[in-house]
Each structure stands twice: as C-alpha cells, then as structure tokens.
C-alpha cells in the first residue's frame, strides 16, 4: 500500500480518510478501521455501518442548510464519500456477488438482482462524485445553490439507506455478520 496523503481525522465523524493506491486484489475504502478488517461479511457489516454513519453526517449537513453550514464537516464528508462507496462496491462486486452466484442455491432471480445492484452501484458512484464536488464547494465557502445541494444530499443518503436495507433484508437475510464467503477466506489465507 503506497501512502500518498496523510489521514484526515475528525472526532465526531467515524470515517478517517487516507488517500493511496490499492493493489489489484485490494478493495480499500480509504477508511483505516474498515481496511484493517478481514474480507468477509463481518467486513461488509462494518462497512455498511460506516456508510450509515456517513449518511447521518450528510443528513446533519442537509439540515444545517442554508444558514448554519459547518464547512469543515462538508470537507471531511466530501473526502470520505468517494473512497468509502467505491471500496465497498468493489468488495461486493469482486468477492461477495461472485460467491453468491457460485452458490448451489443461486438462480436467475439472484443473477438479475445482482445485476440491478451493480447498476445501482454505478449510479451511486456517479452521484457520489457530483455530491463530493458540491460538498467541497460548500466547504470552501464558494457560492452554491443551497436548495439544490440539500436535494442532492437527501437524495443520496436516502437512496444509500434503501440500498443497504435491501441488501440486508434480501441478500444477507439469515447470514450472521461474522460468516465469511469461502472465496474471501481463501483470499486472506
């Protein structure tokens, strides 16, 4: 792992961001706490909890608009957003989804569901990039359309919460967070 930057830390936000390049078999979120975990459903559960914590931060930013914007919180959220979302999506698409498709219980319905989730991942990543730009502008004090940024924030965190709820209720139903997919167990061994 090649460190390019230094971690940004904030005590009231769970996400600590580090900028670096990851190897081909590494899905890094930019979050030291998540990246230290083992690959598996326990990692995914922690990652989803980090996403939900970020959603709370984004909701607080949206609620503070237009008059009480915490610029530093906007910058920290902007720095955490992209790496966290991309890292989790990379894990799901390269480890979790292939493991689920290789399962004897896999069927056409599962394949269609996973394709839909991959499409949502692409949309979420594009939305996260636009939101990152808006948060950086907001954090720097640049003029922004506060109403538009508020709608962007709410659209993103509400969609992400629904996505996580769907995965938990339909894909991971009955699976304990500490169970690891076999492919993930082999990758860490």
Q: DSSP helix count?
A: 6
Order of neighbouring strands in the sheet with most strands: 1-2
The number of E-state strands comes to 2
Shape: elongated
Secondary-structure map:
Blueprint: E1 2-3, E2 20-21, H1 32-35, H2 41-64, H3 71-102, H4 108-140, H5 146-171, H6 182-188
Antiparallel strand pairs: 1-2
Summarize the structure.
The protein has six helices and two strands, in the order ββαααααα.
Q: Which structural traits does this protein have?
A:
189 residues; disordered N terminus; Four Helix Bundle (Hemerythrin (Met), subunit A); elongated; two-stranded antiparallel sheet; mainly alpha; 2% strand
Walkthrough of the structure:
- This protein is an all-alpha fold.
- The chain has a single domain, classed as Up-down Bundle (Four Helix Bundle (Hemerythrin (Met), subunit A)), CATH 1.20.120.
- The chain is 67% helix and 2% strand.
- It contains 6 helices and 2 strands.
- A two-stranded antiparallel ribbon has the order 1-2.
- α2 packs antiparallel against α3, α2 runs antiparallel to α5 and α4 packs antiparallel against α5.
- The longest helix is centred in the middle third of the chain and has 33 residues.
